[in-house]
Amino acid sequence: MKTDFSQLRFNALVQSSQQLSVPVSEPNRRSSLFASHVFNDYKMLQYLTKDAIGAVRDAVTSGSKIDRKLADQVAEGMKTWAIEMGATHYTHWFQPLTGATAEKHDAFFDIQDGQALEIFGGAQLVQQEPDASSFPSGGIRNTFEARGYTAWDPSSPAFVYATTLCIPTIFVSYTGEALDNKAPLLRALNAIDEAATSVAKYFDKTVTKVNATLGWEQEYFLIDKSLATARIDITLTGRTLLGHTAAKGQQLEDHYFGVIPSRVIGFMSDLEKECMVLGIPVKTRHNEVAPNQFELAPVFEEANLSVDHNLLLMDVMDKVADKHHLKVLFHEKPFAGINGSGKHNNWSLATDTGTNLLRPGSTPMKNLQFLTFFINTIKAVDTYESLLRASIASASNDHRLGANEAPPAIFSIFIGKQLSAVLDELEGVSLGKLSPEEKTELKLNVVGKIPEILMDNTDRNRTSPFAFTGNKFEMRGVGSKTNCAKPMTVLNTAVAQQLQLFKKEVDRLIDQKGLKKDEAIFNVLREYIKSSKRIRFEGDGYSAAWEKEAVKRKLSNLRTTPEAVAVMSEKANVNLFEQMGVLSPVELKARQEVEWEAYVMHTQIEGRVYEELVYSQILPSAVGYMNVLLENLNKMNAVMGHVTALKESAQGQVFSQINEHVQALKISVDTMTQARKVTNKLASTSERAHAYAFEVKPLFEAIRTHADQLEKLMSDSYWPLIKYRELLQIR
Fold first, then answer.
1. Alpha-carbon distance 330 to 316, whole Å?
2. Is the pLDDT of residue 447 over 70?
3. Three-class DSSP labels, 144-171
4. How far apart are CA 472 and CA 357, in angstroms?
5. Which of 235, 329, 491, 636 is deepest in the core (most CB within 10 A)?
6. What is the mean pLDDT of the chain?
């Protein structure tokens, strides 16, 4: 008799087969919807006084404080607009160290002097007091200390989502330490603004502000919701812990840029409409390499706003997918044997005068400006390569990094043959003053034109973790689940410090050595080219040869999250964040503890799910099928009159193979469970994280191997879990 779980599987398959595309109506113009639910500059003109608008704009551009009287005016205008949009509640929308977003909704409704009113003042806009005790704090807060504060971030506009006015905020402890990902990002962006503006004035004295820009590429999987619900590993861990590879995966490469399935195009259209009204400037959609894998990308934005939009997008994706009877999988590696998902972070620097500082120019001086920011970025990445690796580390991303599909754990920079040749040439420029010939030759003919086509200056290298792609750097190792604030905080802080050091060295050469500005700049850059040469690599980042070469170059190879997170407490990294005013030593240590603890929890949960899957579903199903085989064998023995069926018949051989895997599977699970119990008793978070990485997690592979073999050997009608060939088919 078939198990109940196998019946659940077949019921889910029937339900999935009956799902049709949800019709979606399209507006005539997407632009007519854009930011209609956002309290932006246009809305402020309609609902705020001139003084209130000025206060908000000053806060955004210069970080000035907003007077409480003016805050009351902003709040009143914001409330009036939100209620007109159908809002009944407001919330401070923040980013705790869980990696997701958090919100507590309060109604505008209140009673005053016996009268029912809608009330929302400056005090409620500027600050709220949520319970901070239940959020990860890494030891900053005791569990009995509940007080924390959320504070309004005017640089990211409020928006109405469903019936709630959402106010982007930072989240800090009662004693002022940052308990979120937004506050450090804002500090890092302020640091890069000050440092980059100071350097940009070498080339254009009218520059008063430099913004870090970010364009993320969100990859994700879509599967039928009923199929996802039928698998507890997907429900509880976001990925399939078991599953034999489907006969057809991505081998034919027929999914990439293929025709988008009808159910998916309906989901995408609905999602994009929601994004439009919320001001998320989504632009590109397509099939990715793996079956059921897709990508969405927006127009570039200021980094803080871009991070907020990505987090909001992931919330919206979940809700829209549910409407279409689909499930979004953000896990970096939800399926074995096919590519996982990343979130490439495309980063650049833009001045308030409209210049992209990482775009090569047409004149020597413009190229010197480009070289300045280009080489300083390379130098910063070379200095803090291990810290950048730590910024993308997570239990889920460890399954993807280096897996012949994503950048390896070794950080390197790809800039292309042409720019490499340029930098190699510049190494040989004479010391001190430039000759007239050298000044003339300071040109980068990186962009060649043929009619109507602008050629890129380099090919792309998909194995590079940090690649220059014409006018930006692409950080490719960021995981699809990751909050972009984490890598962006590290990158902007590192580059900001490097630009500060650069300016000091240049000014010293000008003041003490009497060099002209361009000569001083060039002399410093030449030394940076030499000292950061080890980080540049043009070859195959997946190769064994590169691993050996990286050792020679003294580049780190931090394969696991516990190893990567450990570098956060190195003296140089602590000094970086403290000197730049981004994270105090206490805040940095807290984040290290949170990352280790998250790794332990995620791996621990996966171990428990393995145990439940095997004991409650796989083993009962296998034993049930073995009983069927045994019954058939007994009948064969009765007919044949001797006991040869077990050894000689096909059924007997299958029975023996299944029995071997059943026994091995039980032993593997019990071994893993015991290792988990030992690990959980270790004293420190660091010890537990490392033990889970090196003692517990390796045992998962044996469990999967035996379970996947059972899937191959058992009758399809007895297998309890939705199979890969069923999950990875969407119409």
1. 13
2. no
3. CCCEEEEEECCCCCCEEECCEEEEEEEE
4. 9
5. 491
6. 89
Neighbours of 259 (CB within 10 A): 10
CA distance linking residue 486 with residue 478, whole number of Å: 10
Closest residue by Cα to residue 87 from 129, 39, 126: 39
Rg (CA), the chain: 29
293 by DSSP, 3-state: which?
A: strand
Largest Cα separation within the chain, whole Å, is 106
Sign of CA dihedral 259, 321, 482, 38: positive
What's the residue count for the chain? 731
Give the model's pLDDT for residue 101: 92
**Position 488, amino acid:** M
What does the block give as tokens for 708?
């996947």
Among residues 76, 88, 95, which one has the least CA distance to residue 148? Answer: 95
Model confidence at 449, pLDDT cuts 50, 70, 90, reads: very low
* Cβ-proximal residues to 110 (8 Å cutoff; 6+ apart), any chain: 116, 117, 118, 119
Q: What is the DSSP letter of 85?
A: T
d(CA 636, CA 652): 10
Report the sign of the C-alpha dihedral through residues 625, 628, 631, 637, in that order: negative
The proportion of the chain whose per-residue pLDDT surpasses 90, expressed as a percent, equals 67
What does DSSP say about strands 466-468 and 413-414: parallel, antiparallel, or unpaired?
Answer: parallel
Pairwise CA distance, residues 152 & 122, whole Å: 10
Provide, for the chain, the percentages of residues in helix, strand and coil under a 3-state DSSP scheme, each rounded to the nearest 5: 50, 15, 35
357 in Cβ contact with 349 (< 8 Å): yes
Calpha distance 561→254 (Å, rounded)? 34
Please state the rounded mean pLDDT for residues 120-136: 81
Identity of the amino acid at 348:
S
Q: Are 387 and 583 in contact (CB under 8 A)?
A: no
Dihedral sign for Cα atoms in the order 556, 562, 567, 570 = negative
C-alpha–C-alpha distance, residues 212 and 182, integer Å: 15
- Distance, in Å, from the CA atom of 409 to the CA atom of 540, rounded to the nearest integer, reads 13
Strands (E), 225-357: 282-287, 293-298, 301-302, 326-329, 343-351
Strands (E), 113-257: 115-118, 127-128, 148-152, 159-161, 164-173, 210-224
CB 561 within 8 A of CB 393: yes
Half-sphere exposure of 493 (CA within 13 A, CB side): 29
For residue 380, give both structure tokens: 């910063």
Hey, is 143 helix, strand or coil?
Answer: coil
CA separation for the pair 304, 492 (Å, rounded): 12
Full DSSP string of 447-507 = --EETTEE--SS---TT-SEEE-SSSEEE---BTTS-THHHHHHHHHHHHHHHHHHHHHHH
Q: What are the φ and ψ backbone dihedral angles of 652, each rounded to 5 degrees?
A: -65, -40
Place of tokens 């064994």: 544
Task: Label residues 172-181 b or e (16+ Cβ within 10 Å = b).
Answer: bbeeebbbbb
Among residues 521, 431, 525, the alpha carbon closest in space to that of 201 is found at 521
Residue 590 CA to residue 137 CA, distance in Å, equals 6
- The residues, any chain, with a CB within 8 Å of residue 378's CB and separated by 6 or more, are 413, 415, 528, 532, 535, 536
Distance CA 256, CA 165 (A): 39
- Cα–Cα distance for residue pair 505/499, rounded to 1 Å: 10
| CA proximity to 74, closest of 85, 65, 66, 62 | 66
pLDDT for 145: 58
Q: Residue 161: beta bridge partners? A: 164
Domains defined along the chain, listed by start: 33-180 (3.10.20.70), 189-597 (3.30.590.10), 598-727 (1.20.120.1560)
* Dist. CA 188–CA 621, nearest whole Å: 54
Can you read off the two tokens belonging to residue 487?
């890598």
pTM across the whole model: 0.93
Q: How far apart (Å, rounded) are the C-alpha atoms in residues 502 and 521?
A: 8
